[in-house]
Amino acid sequence: MNTIIEPFRIKSVDPIRMSEPEERRRHLQQAEFNLFRIPAEHVIIDLLTDSGTGAMSSAQWAGMMEGDESYAGAKSYYRFHTAVENLTGIPNILPTHQGRASERLLVEALIGSGDAGRGLVVPNNAHFDTTRANIEHCNAQAIDLLTEAGLQPTLEAPFKGNMDTVALKKLLNDRAADVPFVMMTVTCNSNGGQPVSLENLRAVRAICDKYGKPLILDAARFAENSWLIRQREPGQGDRSPSAITRDMFDLCDGATISAKKDGIVNIGGVLLLRDDEMFQRASNLLILTEGFVTYGGLAGRDLEAMAIGFTEALREDYLRYRLRSVEYLGEKLLDGGVSIMQPPGGHAVYIDAEAFCSHIPREHFPGQALVCALYEHGGIRACEIGSVMLGDHAVMELVRLAIPRRTYTQSHIDYVIEVVLDLQERRKLIPGMQIIEQAPALRHFTARFAPV
Ligand code: F0G
What we know:
By secondary structure, this protein is α/β, with parallel strands linked by helices. Helices cover 40% and strands 12% of the residues. Helix 8 (222-232) packs across helix 9 (241-250). The model has no long low-confidence stretch (mean pLDDT 96). The structure holds ligand F0G. Ligand F0G binds at residues 49, 51, 98-100, 128, 130-131, 185, 189, 218, 220, 258, 260, 269.
């Protein structure tokens, strides 16, 4: 059969409260046009993030009941350890409460704290904002080395998450001593959830070997990356997602994982470091701020849910449905004439807000204008990834429709498509935005706006 169905039945439901545009206009005004300030119960379809918002399986819920809450050496820890070692082949594993905790430990273990990073530079295909913030926190510089193709929204290319290996070679050639480690983010969230090929990972590995640098994977969406490799990379079409995932981890010296994505849990993370000395340093830091090494700031039940989630995320029927539902949303928006980041990546569709709101200049934040309009028009909450979030680092003005895992059905997605296409008809009426008040860092969470 050709119809790809959600490979699960629903046995617990969470009601959605419907609302009218007038009510939502009021909520927008009260929230001063910042979608982070809107209570979730006033949102119809919440596409703010795919992080921690997925639905757990009945097996995961059952696992939570089995959670062993012993302080040290809980059964749940050993189950978690076995699952992650099977997945990655790396035996040095720390649980953390989420991705950014792993990032903080990584940076402190490999660079140091305070001013230790001054003069150092950490390259990545593109850093996620928390990774960048953690690196900059010790005064090191975080730089993005995406290929030219990765920065062109409408260009169809299979691996727009790839790193520009010429640029990496040049950086290491010029300033090898200043580079403590190299990172690769799979899939690359900052430019549309775009995948990285095994070929590119191997090339980056070879360069790291030449200069003796550790390669660290930001593997939040490892399963989605493995499926896109299977679909798009020559010679990978009949390999299993687990085998491809293993190849990805075999190429790295360590990894940070936010389990809130492909771990399909509401909270959790992992830090992996092959080198025993580095691992020991990170373990000591974990004990200092997160908790003992066998729970890392989580409950035993969270470790159970992660162990099961990591396995479920690699099931072929799940990945086929997951990637197809994102692709479906992208296709329908494209067919309707909406300019999106192409091809759609693993976890989200990114609308080119500058094209959608071509009457709004950059200084009036076309992305922020569009997220407000989507909310007012259809109760959809999306996320601006443009100059509000990234400031001067913004290369594109994007609006991300992130799809939580196993949470919404096709009719929810059809509703989203209808809202976006209907809004497109009247897009010239969308007002630009101005910032009334903002915080010095990560301003998108709390800034207040007003229509121009
Ligand atoms: N790395 C990537 C690629 C991410 O997308 C995220 C989180 C993190 C690290 C940090 O993980 O949230 O568990 O601390 N991304 C979320 C998002 C927040 O909406 O894309 P965390």
